[in-house]
Specification:
Number of strands: 6
CATH architecture of the largest domain: Alpha-Beta Complex
Distance between the termini: 44 Å
Strand order of the largest sheet: 3-4-6-5
Largest sheet: 4 strands, antiparallel
CATH superfamily of the largest domain: H-NOX domain
Number of domains: 2
Oligomer: single chain
CATH topology of the largest domain: H-NOX domain
Length: 192
């Protein structure tokens, strides 16, 4: 089986997030300690729509957790969630921001599996809506650590783009010790 792939914009915006949060000097130190494969990708002209190994985002997320989270699930969840929010915000250009204002939670929930298939070469996302609660479950994403946590931030940013106020989010079947459990999911609630 081929390794899972993801779109390059995820790498680009994760690097931007780390650079902004940690500062250029700290990022330079980190960059020099990355794996040779990731160093080569980061030094290249990353194509936002190009395919890249999921191992690159996993490595960047491990850096994020090492530098920005304590060694507990709560701070790790919050750090990854905020990174997911950043990625979604940076990936949404002016035109998409206008479309987001017209999007409804129902349509968003129906389209999320399509967005997942567009951005990842394998795996499966199932989404459902129950009142003002969105639930998203992730299956068959081997090696993609923390997928549900990052996605919770992505979804939260999308709901804010629709003019909704996110009340809460929770991540289930996930922990630092089990970052890639098949069927892990997040729930997000909002108000108008």
């Amino acid at each position: 089986m081929a390794e899972m792939q993801m779109r390059g914009y995820i790498i680009v915006h994760t690097v931007q997030y780390l650079r902004e949060k940690l500062g250029d000097a700290e990022w330079s130190r980190i960059e020099s300690s990355l794996s040779p494969g990731l160093q080569a990708v980061v030094a290249s002209d990353i194509k936002h729509g190009g395919w890249y190994s999921i191992s690159h985002t996993v490595e960047l997320n491990r850096v994020l957790l090492d530098k920005m989270a304590k060694r507990d699930d709560t701070s790790a969840r919050d750090a990854l969630h905020h990174c997911g929010r950043y990625i979604a915000g940076a990936a949404t250009n002016t035109f998409l921001k206008m479309l987001m204002k017209m999007l409804t939670p129902s349509l968003f929930a129906r389209k999320l599996p399509d967005v997942f298939r567009r951005d990842f070469s394998s795996g499966r996302l199932e989404s459902s809506l129950d009142g003002k609660k969105l639930t998203c479950r992730y299956y068959d994403v081997p090696g993609f650590e923390h997928s549900a946590v990052l996605a919770s931030g992505f979804a939260a940013k999308a709901f804010e783009g629709m003019g909704k106020e996110v009340e809460s989010f929770s991540v289930h079947n996930w922990s630092l010790q089990q970052p890639n459990t098949d069927g892990s999911w997040f729930e997000l609630t909002w108000k108008d």
